[in-house]
Amino acid sequence: MSNTTGTISMALLPVVLVLLHMISAAAASESYVIETLPGYPGLLPFKLETGYIGVGEDEDLQLFYYFIESEGDPEKDPLILWMNGGPGCSGFTGLVYEIGPLNFNLSSYDGSLPSFILNPYSWTKIASIIFIDSPVGTGFSYTNSPEGYYRSDTKLAVDNHMFLRKWLLNHPSFLENRLYMAGDSYGGKIAPLVAFEIAQGNEAGLQPWMNLKGYIIGNAFTDADRDVNYRVPYAHRMAIISDDYYELLKTSCNNEYVNPDPSNLQCTYALRLFKELVQCTQNIWDQHILEPNFSYDQTILWLQVKIYWPSFTWARDDSVQEALGIRKGTKEEEWVRCNRSSAYTSDVRSVLEYHKLLNEKGYQILAYSGDHDFGVPYISTLKWIHRLNLTIEDAWRPWRVDGQIAGYTEKYKEGGGSFITFATGAGHTAPEYMPKQCFAMLKRWLSMFPL
User: Alphabetically, which GO biological process terms does the record hold (predicted)?
Assistant: First the structure.
């Protein structure tokens, strides 16, 4: 533990120097308050701000963001930095498809500029949320230096920490608000890394001090090997593979299904058989095994186009980019919702140690996990929580919305007073599948009420 903490602390030193230099200089940024948007009739019923924040020694990385002020009590409601996954998926994904106040009106979409409807379960009803396009190259974020596009887990954590500290310098009225990092999928891996950067910065005396209270993660990538390893027992629990096949895998591979010993021919055979079985079940949508697979049927493929293509049509429109304040000529390629071509290195294999350190420091964690997600199974999330050796405060039980079971929950406590709340329900991006239930979950957790 001490070696890990020392390594992280030493790695932070150059970051501290950069941040001190950054804070001593004028915070260069550009932002716009948006009152109307193409696709929405009339004035927006919430406050939307967009803008760029420059990070890096020469501010060569220009990170674009959407900020929506709480529709409740912005002076008291918490501030959330929302990070989408991928890596490389725009914050627009979270804003329109998951937790933001706007949804596309799919019933009227005909391929032209799409229209919006309001999301009655937007998290912005109880929190102010920054949706960030990160890493650079995502969404409308850009850099003028080609080497700037080479990002990694550790660089991204530093970038987002710098971004948020500068954003707060430009928005001092939010300095006292409770602050939470949040994200799902790969963004759920980055959230604790950014939280740790903030905690270290606060301890080093960086200004402004940030009122970090914890973080919120959904179906979060945590350990590169363990997350994949638990797909096998998950497939068995969900009746995707039979008892016989599961017993063959367990006995042949000794419960280790990632990077097996190549000399273990029996395990190699069992894993090949498992992969063939999974291929045979590619009718299953791995992000929600009860939903149709969009790539299987042409009718369903069109449904996928109808659901997701409106974001391309909308964000690439000239009138939209003008309304958002997008700098002309800053993107060499057209906007994409998820940039899969970025030069990104996953250099943190596991964030378990960060979870442990942050939990010991007293931060609160909400870890929700769609129990129908095959990509990052809920078993994986439960296992890393159990590896922290915490005490069960509230044993496994259902949690309900409007009298109906929304999922199951368990709460764990650390001796220092911090808690981890675990909750199941829905698929890989849970708010996309169960918006009402996830809104209730967040509201109760932020209010310190049991789920």
Answer: proteolysis; secondary metabolic process
